[in-house]
Automatic annotation (TrEMBL):
GO biological process, one term: axon guidance
InterPro entries, alphabetized: Ig-like_dom, Ig-like_dom_sf, Ig-like_fold, Ig_I-set, Ig_sub, Ig_sub2
Protein family per UniProt: Belongs to the immunoglobulin superfamily. Contactin family.
Any one GO CC term of the record: plasma membrane
The organism of origin for this protein: Camelus dromedarius
Domain Ig-like: from-to ranges: 1-57, 76-162, 167-251
Protein name as annotated: Contactin-3
Subcellular location: Cell membrane
Keyword entries, A-Z: Cell adhesion, Cell membrane, Disulfide bond, Glycoprotein, Immunoglobulin domain, Lipoprotein, Membrane, Repeat, Signal
Length: 347
């Protein structure tokens, strides 16, 4: 992050830029389109850090006029021009320089090669020697022309601006807790130019793929989860201009049914002929299998009794109450323990 200026003879007399004099902020060079007697003197280059404001001065360079003749008129000669191809980042400020020597002093104009008009945000600086495009977007990409013209002729410099964008997140991954034996689908999505590619890490190392662990278009799927799948995961989206990370924790839980935090009501009073729903939501990983008993008799589903799963581990027994009240209903929970690790069968 450097800026350039030139001292004329002694500080603080700096060269004032105009249609005849130009200082390139790309190279630091000073250009004078048509030298006049008032330009004779010593020139010193000044380089300043825009971050620290530290300043360095070069050695003085004298400019003298030759006495062996006078330079006649000639057509413009473009000495400062932008590259043939210049990548520009999304949202950046792009500055294109163009300056020509000539006698008479050339006039600088700009246009797009495709004939499209300039956006209203585009500014011309330094007597049209600099074309400035703030907040560069994809529609600003294309070919640009700098035309230097005087009474002796014209010259044209061309260059192409290409658009690129570092990856940025459209969808991040978030912490998730899933029961053992369930399936995981984790999707991270990023946009960028060119289109980002994806890779995944687990606990800081490249994720090892296998039959039940697959990655497709940035989405991670793990089937038949087990406790060892738990860990910190990172999804990385990258293109040649940069990369971004998204991190989240996967917890695979395995536990027998537990009613301690979600107990059933011990007594429910209802009117004869009304509808009744007995809710039951045990904590269990993997999901528990349920059965209901009325007294010692297993409840069978029929036109009056229906067991409904309302989501997660919530099961409800719905029925019409009959004239007999005071019966005790029990819910019996059973678990599949195959492939579970570190979990004891409930007594």
């Amino acid at each position: 992050e450097l800026s350039y200026a030139w001292i004329f003879n002694e500080y603080p007399s700096f060269v004032e830029e105009d249609s005849r004099r130009f200082v390139s902020q790309e190279t630091g060079h000073l250009y004078i389109a048509k030298v006049e007697p008032s330009d004779v003197g010593n020139y010193t280059c000044v380089v300043t850090s825009t971050v620290t404001n530290a300043r360095v001065l070069g050695s003085p360079t004298p400019l003298v006029l030759r006495s062996d003749g006078v330079m006649g008129e000639y057509e413009p000669k473009i000495e400062v021009q932008f590259p043939e191809t210049l990548p520009a980042a999304k949202g950046s400020t792009v500055k294109l320089e163009c300056f020509a020597l000539g006698n008479p002093v050339p006039q600088i104009n700009w246009r797009r090669s495709d004939g499209l008009p300039f956006s209203s945000k585009i500014k011309l600086r330094k007597f049209s020697g600099v074309l400035e495009i703030p907040t560069f977007q994809q529609e600003d990409a294309g070919s640009y022309e700098c035309i230097a013209e005087n009474s002796r002729g014209r010259n044209v410099a061309r260059g192409r601006l290409t658009y690129y964008a570092k990856p940025h997140w459209v969808q991040l991954i978030k912490d998730v807790e899933i029961a053992v034996e369930d399936n995981l689908y984790w999707e991270c999505r990023a946009s960028g130019k060119p289109k980002p590619s994806y890779r995944w890490l687990k606990n800081g190392e490249a994720l090892v793929l296998e039959e039940r662990i697959q990655i497709e278009n940035g989405a991670l799927t793990i089937s038949n989860l087990n406790v060892t799948d738990s860990g910190m995961f990172q999804c990385i989206a990258e293109n040649k201009h940069g990369l971004v990370y998204s991190s989240a924790e996967l917890k695979v839980v395995a536990s027998p049914p537990d009613f301690s935090k979600t107990p059933m009501k011990r007594l429910i009073q209802v009117q004869v002929g009304s509808n009744v729903s007995l809710d039951c939501k045990p904590r269990a990983s993997p999901r528990a299998l349920s059965s209901w008993k009325k007294g010692d008799v297993l409840v069978q589903e029929n036109e009056r009794y229906c067991v409904v799963q309302k989501g997660g581990d919530l099961f409800a027994l719905a029925f019409y109450s009959d004239a007999k009240v005071g019966f005790r209903y029990e819910m019996k929970m059973q678990l599949h323990f195959n492939k579970m690790q570190g979990v004891q069968r409930p007594q």
